[in-house]
Write a structure and sequence with these properties.
This protein is an all-alpha fold. It has one domain. The protein contains eight helices and no strands. The longest helix has 24 residues. It is globular and about 40 Å long. The N and C termini lie close together (10 Å).
Length: 144
């Protein structure tokens, strides 16, 4: 079974989405300093506009996330810790995930969401790279 098939399986998908949202929330909560405050403010703004946006966006983007991560999963081969594997290929993995979010936000009709995302996009790669161990752990848990 491929990563995509495993993550998108009807009985598994809601738990995958919930766990990924928990990762996002934890990553945002853990940010420090001025840039952390900006991330927290942007995230709060987006959630104020649409309280369920993180869950709905994660659910909508999950097929694309799984698709762009499929080559990493195949190369990983299932031995060890997928989170560590992704972190070891941080630039490539972060770029792959960000192509999905960039495309989705670019197509969004919500100006508030676009503005908040664009304000955070400059540091997004660093933040995604920092989250890769947690993301990989969630994916491996559900695909393993």
């Amino acid at each position: 079974m491929t990563l995509t098939e495993a993550l998108l399986a009807e009985q598994r998908r809601p738990a995958v989405v919930a766990d990924l949202v928990a990762v996002i929330d934890a990553e945002v909560k853990g940010k420090k300093g001025v840039s952390g405050a900006a991330i927290k403010a942007g995230y709060a703004t987006v959630k104020k506009v649409s309280p369920n946006i993180t869950t709905s966006a994660t659910n909508r983007m999950l097929p694309d996330f799984a698709t762009v991560l499929e080559p990493f999963w195949t190369d990983f081969g299932g031995a060890g810790d997928f989170g560590s594997y992704l972190a070891g290929r941080g630039d490539e993995a972060a770029d792959a995930l960000l192509t999905v979010t960039d495309n989705r936000v670019g197509k969004s009709g919500r100006k508030t969401v676009q503005k908040a995302y664009n304000g955070l996009r400059g540091r997004a790669k660093e933040n995604v790279k920092a989250a890769l161990p947690r993301i990989g752990a969630v994916l491996q848990q559900h695909a393993g």
